[in-house]
Give the backbone structure.
Amino acid sequence: MRKFQFLLLDAGPIIKLFELGIWDEFINRCDVTIVRTVAEDEVVFAGKAEGKEYIDFGLQPWVEKGLIKIVDVEPCEVKAFYENSNILDKYDIHPGEMESLTFLYRISGDWKFCSSEGPAFAVLGFLGKSNQGISLEEILQDIGRKQSRLEWKYAKKFREKYTRIGQIDSIQGKGLL
């Protein structure tokens, strides 16, 4: 049985898993879901710019094999969610994170969202969904694949720091929904 049945991934962790050469192992041990914006816009153009290479991860083969799932969130849902809050005034959220967080906010179940962006974790803390954030370090540790080469943005302490910022903002009334 897979450890993570409801795992939603942002672009940063996907890119890192490819860099580490453990993407295939990871998706065999986790049920991975990715929102369309991350899969088609953010992961495709990941890499370096201006004279450096771009990498197209081409996730479609894994979708076709049923190893990952791509989900759509209607743009009107994303727009409505953020128009009814001042989250975007407070936090710098990228389009893929916006779609992922909207999906997470509206779905039921024990979903976990893995990102490498502080503002994404802060929004989870702000919305009272801090238990739904998870770092890449935590996932890898849980599946028995501890990595010593992970940067700060993939660490449990990073997730905890930014989640706490969002919780404090919520408690202090800085941008309640």
About this structure: The chain has a mean pLDDT of 87. Residues 104 and 111 are 7 Å apart (CA to CA).
